[in-house]
């Protein structure tokens, strides 16, 4: 085997080990399985060069607390591992935004249900089933 092939083989072996551990940990955390893409190495064996794990989340619209929990779950799973890809970072940012929106909805609902005041000093009336939140000026 030539030096160039030996170096390529060593790189493929390191990458294969890293990706299998990384995707395997995520698969274990999500209860799902990893899907791998491989290439043929100079020694005739197949080596993993990329991997992905499908993360199934249920639809939780209408329940801000459930949305918040699910977004936090997704963010924790995505942030698992020593090195985040750009896709990982984008998903983590989106999950954090969803968490914050759900937190805001929960705070708004709590404020409306308690008849509290908004930051602008307006009284927030309790929410009615028909009209929603009414701000009193």
Task: Characterise this structure.
The protein is an alpha+beta fold. Helix content is 53%, strand content 14%. It is rod-shaped, with a radius of gyration of 24 Å.
**Number of beta-strand segments:** 4
Mean pLDDT, nearest integer? 81
Percent of sequence in beta strands? 5-15%
The end-to-end span amounts to 82 Å
Series of H and E elements: HEEHHEE
Structural class: alpha+beta
Order of adjacent strands in the largest pleated sheet = 1-2
Which bin fits the share of residues in helices?
40-55%
Q: Total number of helical segments?
A: 3
Poorly predicted runs of 5 or more residues? 130-137
Short synopsis of the structure:
The protein is α+β, with helices and mostly antiparallel strands and 137 residues long.
Topology summary:
Layout: H1 3-30, E1 34-40, E2 46-53, H2 64-78, H3 86-114, E3 123-124, E4 135-136
Antiparallel strand pairs: 1-2, 3-4
Helix pairs in contact: 2-3
Labels describing this entry:
single chain, 137 residues, alpha+beta, two-stranded antiparallel ribbon, 3 helices, 53% helix, 14% strand
């Amino acid at each position: 085997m030539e030096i160039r092939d030996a170096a390529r083989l060593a790189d493929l072996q390191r990458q294969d080990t890293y990706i299998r551990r990384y995707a395997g940990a995520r698969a274990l955390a999500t209860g799902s399985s990893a899907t791998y893409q491989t290439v043929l190495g100079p020694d005739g064996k197949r080596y993993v060069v990329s991997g992905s794990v499908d993360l199934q989340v249920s639809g939780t619209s209408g329940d801000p607390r459930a949305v918040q929990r699910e977004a936090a779950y997704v963010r924790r799973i995505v942030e698992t591992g020593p090195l985040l890809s750009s896709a990982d970072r984008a998903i983590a940012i989106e999950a954090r935004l969803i968490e914050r929106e759900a937190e805001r909805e929960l705070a708004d609902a709590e404020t409306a249900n308690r008849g509290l005041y908004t930051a602008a000093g307006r009284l927030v009336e309790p929410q009615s089933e028909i009209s929603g939140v009414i701000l009193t000026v």
